[in-house]
């Protein structure tokens, strides 16, 4: 019988193995592999091998690695994987702003096993990398079409790195024109933090626009900030609240009027891809996150790709090397005197570009638009259902539609019961969900919760999540003891203790752990 | 029909314009009057109470004689019943407490009072959380969350209350400066207790936000920035508060925490000035370039008219809007939750002049653009 997901609360329990640290499983002398000694013939030819390593680079002592048999190692890691919540076993709708969409397994198979993507080396001659370079060029052409930009670069390892690259290009552009007075960048408070942070790192003064009382960016505020000192505006749109800036076109025009450039942080493009293009809005530089929007999974800080797109006049400033096509061969061009340099060695994370290529090719132009429409539709459905739950509020811009994500507030719940969005997050684990993403900094929305259902989730998935959130909210009001002790169905309770959040309570290596134990700050 | 009680602390805020940072105690009052201060809390109260004139048939008003209420009701055109007795011209905190108790005994549904943090403490001592109250701001420093944003919104909120539109109440903090810490140079509002206020969050002042770790970093960064762009041949009028104190410290200059200091050629030329002293310096004609540095009162969003009344409408008019530097930590700005900044100079023309967008220095080479209402 089909379940009624409107009322279904999944009975979930996380696995617990009480597994030792791998260093503490070690038995001296135990081996996973017995490496054979080289044949005499080989020794005669190359010596012992060690002598070829320069004296200063040789270890004096053996490394203190754990010594284990193969089955023990295998068991160890499989137990650990059972104790975590993988992205393939739980819907990750709660990771708002991250666009956690499904990455088709055929893509994962290709990037893990296809020899053209796996058995290659960055120092290979480009003539032997034609297939990879073709993927690069074709992906560039496709994202140019989606955005309206004239050229793209895939070197940056993530959105913030692309933002930094954009700021460097803006600096180089004005410098080459002899205009070094422009030292200010303008952004908005609900734009991603990197839209302020990256330009500051690149040496700009940063002006942040606060929203009007309705939570929307105000054109008047921008006009107050613009001047002959403005190098560029860096804005996210739709902002992290899910609200599309209704003045975006006027923003761009006002900035261009004072001679400034316009940078569009399109990390939140999922709801508008295939529908609006940055070029028609007038932007000069943009970035997409190929991970997330174009399907590479990126939980746990996995490798990403901030694809930076520019208009023709900024093309000379892009990083090197550039993938070019002369009609026959693909080449790597590093002869670009105005280039801002390198943001990363080689060509960036090639497998992320490869996944994006496969994803776009599978969907096609119509499919991409459909994905955008579905992601917005899913979000409308989720918002409608969640807004009926006591304790949740959608702040700012009352009555204005959010696009593909929404920043909710548990402010009313906190005022009524004292429970925070972190308390809600902890209890949701009991129903098989990952923790919820609260908010980017700064926390302007009290007790925030940002959800983004993307196009990958079905109505059943959304109903099940709403049911769990509704139950948690009910418990906050009626059975507070269930919230206080949560999670009950996970081996570790209450990991959000402030007192644990100090440097001397954290150990990320075994050596560090031993030091902390000796100092008495860690007792496990 | 609702019963409303109304008490005015006639001398609330009297010390502000003459640089006394407060009005608590008989000695302070005497000094304020000697320095030429004029009681103004009554005027502010009239603005609020006028909003009720058209809803007179919805409530009964109970108040205390003369400047403690009756005069204001008269001026606002309201009918009222008078309780108690006072020695007009010589009221003290004790009168506020007695009046609050009397009004509570007479069964009022809501007690409206006019004053500052000191008044709020007196009201709390007298009625606790037995009946809801609402403050009309008229004091020098307002850290308590029991006050409406300004007299006008107090009036609007009262109107909604008597019309039955605001039914819920919420506990709000009564805070005052911790004098012990203040003497050591730290502004830290201390929690004294709670009062019940009508719940309408848009119209009631947010509690002055507490200190956080990141706040000190932000203040340090913005202080360094302002110190680095300091112009020696400009006269600086440095306002009150711990943020401006941090800037002065960065400059290596002595500072009056709750007072206004004047700096010229990187030297303090006058400390803890009254409005009159500032105006005299400005009128001397010796200074072609003048700037004002002020901060935002955390949680409330005021940049003029709270705790820095010495920088009056006349001073602002002479210096000009373009020469005002507003500096505040990111935490302070963010605790406004997207609300604008406010000014309350007591002069509509200057309030108007100041309204619009302004850049607030929040870090090194970092500013927020926000609106002033």
TrEMBL record, chain A:
GO terms for cellular component: cytosol; glycine cleavage complex. Its EC number is 1.4.4.2. GO terms for molecular function: glycine binding; glycine dehydrogenase (decarboxylating) activity; pyridoxal phosphate binding. Residues 174-318 form the Aminotransferase class V domain. Residues 373-476 form the Glycine dehydrogenase C-terminal domain. It comes from the Bacteria. The keyword Zinc-finger does not apply. Keywords: Oxidoreductase, Pyridoxal phosphate. Pfam families: Aminotran_5, GcvP2_C. The keyword Lyase does not apply. One of its GO terms (biological process) is glycine decarboxylation via glycine cleavage system. This is glycine dehydrogenase (aminomethyl-transferring). The lineage of its organism: Bacteria, Bacillati, Bacillota, Clostridia, Lachnospirales.
Automatic annotation (TrEMBL), chain B:
One of its GO terms (biological process) is NADP+ biosynthetic process. Coiled coil: none annotated. Gene3D superfamilies: Probable inorganic polyphosphate/atp-NAD kinase, domain 1. Keywords: Kinase, Transferase. GO terms for molecular function: ATP binding; NAD binding; NAD+ kinase activity. InterPro entries: AcoX-like, ATP-NAD_kinase_N, NAD/diacylglycerol_kinase_sf, NADK, Put_ATP-NAD_kin. The keyword Kinase applies. The keyword Kinase applies. This is Predicted polyphosphate-or ATP-dependent NAD kinase. The lineage of its organism: Bacteria, Bacillati, Bacillota, Clostridia, Lachnospirales.
